[in-house]
Amino acid sequence: MEQHRTRPPHDGPRRGAPLPPQGRRDAAAPARPGPAARPGGPPSGPGPSVARQADHGDMQRRPAPARRNAPPPVPPVRRLPGPRLTGLGGGLFCAAVMPVIGAVDRLLFDSSLTFYGVLFLPVAALTALWVRVGDLVAAPVSVPIAFAVGLLTVADGGDGLSGHLVGLVTGLATQAGWLYGGTLVAGVIATVRRMRVLRRRAAQRRRTA
Predict the structure, then answer these.
(1) pLDDT along the chain (209 residues), means of 10
(2) Exposed e or buried b for every residue in 146-183, given b needs 16+ CB within 10 A?
(3) How many domains would you assign to the chain?
(4) Residues of the domain holding 146
(5) Domain for residue 43, yes or no?
(6) pTM (2 decimals)?
């Protein structure tokens, strides 16, 4: 007897059979490029260049902080350098200023010895301040000499050389207080300056030691 051959049933579509419409759309649609999946892990995110561009865009969107106007710098206060006279220069300065003061006193105040003595004090102080450190001893010596030189234009003693000498001696005797006061001012200033210089040198020696 002839046995009919049994063929296994085909689950899928036969060759040459038309595809369903859904399958046609899937086959016709192009494959969308997606992020490359790393083996054994989730798909990688955007690259570093994309992240940098995003950060740069965020920085451009953020408003720039308001700049505060800084106050202008205060220029440093510069001290005027005082003239440094030698001992001879300090004596000439004082001896030149006092006759001028005496002439102004004679013209404006009718040879007032009080006015002459009052102005002698600041002149003596300036002489002691402007003399350099090496010649501080000369300041108290030159100040009384300049006082006597300027007193010749103020003192009244008569005509002739003898009359001027008498007037000078009389003015020195009567105005001895102003003379000693100016000399004392010059001596004190010179002593203080000398002490400051000695202390500064001692401090420098301690630092270097």
Answers:
(1) 49 52 50 49 50 53 56 55 80 93 89 90 94 90 93 77 79 89 95 92 86
(2) bbbbbbbbbbebeeeeeebeebbeebeeebeebbebbb
(3) 1
(4) 87-208
(5) no
(6) 0.59
